[in-house]
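Quarterly update from the structural biology core.
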Amino acid sequence: MRVYDAAHRRRGTRLAHLVALPLMGAAVPVAFVSLRWSVATLAVGWALQYLSHVFIEGNDTCLKSWKQVPVAALWTVAQGQKTWDKIQGWTKRS
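Predicted structure, tokenized:
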């Protein structure tokens, strides 16, 4: 958790991930309708996450290998409520 928190310190990055992760997840069922839209949905979600790290956080993404993707996805879902609570706390303070 410390590594994740250190790489996702800013509200913009967490909000970008909050939008990007469901987009990337939606790419799977969308593939049954249109492969083109599925690839586009996945690409937009991935780009949003990557760009948030580069331009908002000023760091590299946490994933160093494609082998980490399934584990990271499961971990992110498990941490979802905690992240959502942090985002709500940020928006209430603003």
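The chain has a mean pLDDT of 76.
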